[in-house]
Amino acid sequence: MAEEKVKKEKGPKLADPNKVSICPATQEMIERSHALGIETVFDRAATMKPCAIGMQGTCCKICAMGPCRLPLPKKGIEGKDDRKGLCGATANTIAARNFARMVAAGTAAHSDHGRSVAEVFLSVARKETEDYKIKDPVRLRQIAPHFGVDTTIEKDGEVKDRNLDEIALEVAEKAWAEWGKPEGTLLYLDRAPEPLQEKWKKMGVMPRNIDREVVEIMHRTTMGVDQDYKNIIKQSTRCSLADGWGGAMMATDLQDVMFGSPSPLQSEANMGIMKEDHVNIIVHGHEPVLSEMIVAASQSPELLEYASSKGAKGIQLGGICCTANEILQRHGVPPAGTFLQQELAIITGACDAMVVDVQCVFQNLANVAKCFHTKLITTHPIAKMEQNNVIHIEFDEHHAMEDAIKIVRMAIDNFENRSADVVIPPYKETQIAGFGVESIEYHLGGTFRGSYYTLNDNIINGRIRGVAGVVGCNNARTKHNEEHITIIKELIKNDVLVLTTGCSAIACGTHGLLTPETAAVYCGPGLAEVCETVGIPPVLHLGSCVDNTRILLAATEVVKAGGLGNDLCDLPAAGSAPEWMSEKAIAIGQYFVSSGVYTVFGYHMPLDGAPELKSYLYEEMEKIYGGKWDCEPDPVKHAHKMIAHIDKKRKELGIDKARERVLMDMADRQALEA
Ligand code: MSK
Asked: What is the 636 CA–ligand 1 centroid distance (Å)?
C-alpha cells in the first residue's frame, strides 16, 4: 500500500474538506484520504488551475497550425473585433465550433447508450436472450404508436390487441433504424407540442437520423468548413434534438420497457449505505443493462449463501452517478454518492468491488483501488483502463446473468481480503425516488382525472408558482453539492416545484430533500400545501441523465392538459445545471433551450471570449425557439433568475394575479374579511 500513496512530502496542495464540500461524509473521507496520503480529485483541483483561454472558449486546436488562442483583451473589445486564428477564424467561429463539438460529444454519449439499450431490446424481441424480458408491456404499447407501430388488429370485424411479440419486434427494428436511416426525420419528434415542431420545421432543424447529426457537426467544425457561428449553432440545435427527442428518449423508453417503468419507492442515499459486515459492491457509470443483472444476482439465494460462507452478513449494492439512479428508481438500490464521491467510496476500505460501465468514470479510480483490496472491474468494450490492477470482464447481453454472477462472486471472494481499516462515514438520508411522467400524473392528477389537470390547476391558482428542472453533475471547481442544494432550497421556498435527475438528484437525496416531510421545512406555503395534500416531496427524482427526457415529456403533458399556453416556451418553467462539468450537459442544455426552455448554468460557460456568440445564445435564440441560455454562478441569484423568468411567463399567461391572491397571509385575509 505504501508505495502507491501520494508522497505527501513532495507537498502537493491539499483540498480543505470544509471548503470543497457541504456533505459531511465527503468531508470525512477527504480527511481520511489525506491521512492515508491518497490523492483525490479535490486535491488535484486545488493544485491544477483551469486554462484561462479554454475557459473563454476561444482556443482552437482543430488543425496543426494551432492551437490558436484568442482571449478577450483585458480592456474588452474596443471598436472592431479583429482577433483571428492563423486561418482567419474569428473568436465567434472558434467558440461556436468548440460549443458544437461539446453538443456532438454529449449527444454521442447519450445516444450510444441508447443504441446499446436498443441493441439489447432487439435481442429480446428476436428471442436471442433469455436474461432480459419485457417487464412493462403497457409501456411498450404506449410508445409503439410513436414508432408508427399498430397496437391493435382488426379481425372478423373486431378490434383486438395485437400480439406483444409482434409489436416488440416491429418497435425494436424501427427504433434501431433511428440511428442511421437514410430518409425522413426522427419519429419521436411528433411527441413535442405542434407549435414547437412547426418552429423546428421552419428553421430546418428536424434531425434526420442520430448518427448523421453527430457526424455532420464533426465535419462542419473541422478545419475550413463552417465559418458562420449562427449556422454552426443551428446544427448544434439539430444535433441536440437528436439527443433529447431521439437517442436519450429512446434509451429511457426502452429501459422502461425491459426493466420496468419506475414508480415512487423509498430508499436511502450517501456513503453511509455501505455496511462493514456485508460484501459491498458499487456500480458506477450510466448503462443499466449490466447493473440490472447485478441486482438480480446479488439477491439470488445461492450467492447470498456463498457470501455467508465467507463470513459476510449479506451483499450491499450501492451506486455512483447515473447507474445508481437507474437501479435506484427501479429497485430501490441506494446511491452511495455523486460523481465527486467515486474515489471516496473506495477510500472507506469497505468497497469489495467497483464495477464500472461508461461515462463519468475517473481513471484515478485505479490508483485509489491499488491502495486497498478493491477489485476495479471494467465491463464495456469501449471503456477500458490502462492500469494493470484493473480487471476487464466484458459484458455481453447474450450471457448477461453469467457475467453478473461472475462479478458478484469475485466481490464475495474479495470480502476476506480487506487490507485497511474500514471507515464508513455514518451519514445517509431517507429518500423517495422513482417519479416519472405517469406517476406525476397519478399523484398530482389522480387516476380519476387521469391527466395533468390538477397540476395545471395548482399552477394557475398560484399555489405552485412554476416548475424547474434542476439537473446535472458535480464539478470539482465548485463546492460539492452547495449550488444544487442552495438553488433548490431557494426555488421550493418560493413555491417552485423541482424535478431533478442525474447527480443533482443524488445530491438532493444525500441532503434530505426527497421526502414529503421536506415540504413543511423548506417550502413556501402554496407548494407545501400541495405536497402535504398529495403526499409527495417538493423535489421529484426523475432518474438519470438520459431521463431528462422525462422532464420534456412531463412538460408536454402540462401543455396538453391546457390553460398554460400552447407550447413549452409558454410555461412558467425553467431549467438549471448548477454544477455542470460534462459535454453531455451542454447537449442537454441545447436541446432544452431549442425546445423553448430558459436554461441557466452555474459555474461558467466557455463563451466569454466570444461576446457576439454569447449574446446569440443568451438572447437571440429566444426569438427563434422561445428558450435561451444563461449563466449565473451565485446560487441565490441563479434561483432568482429562474423565478423571475417564471413570473414573466405567469404574467404573459395572465395568471400573475392568481398568485398574488394565494400569497396573502392570515392578516391580509382577516383584513379582507373585515
Ligand atoms: S452522472 S453526466 S456527472 S450528472 Fe449522469 Fe452525474 Fe453529470 Fe455524470
From this structure: 23
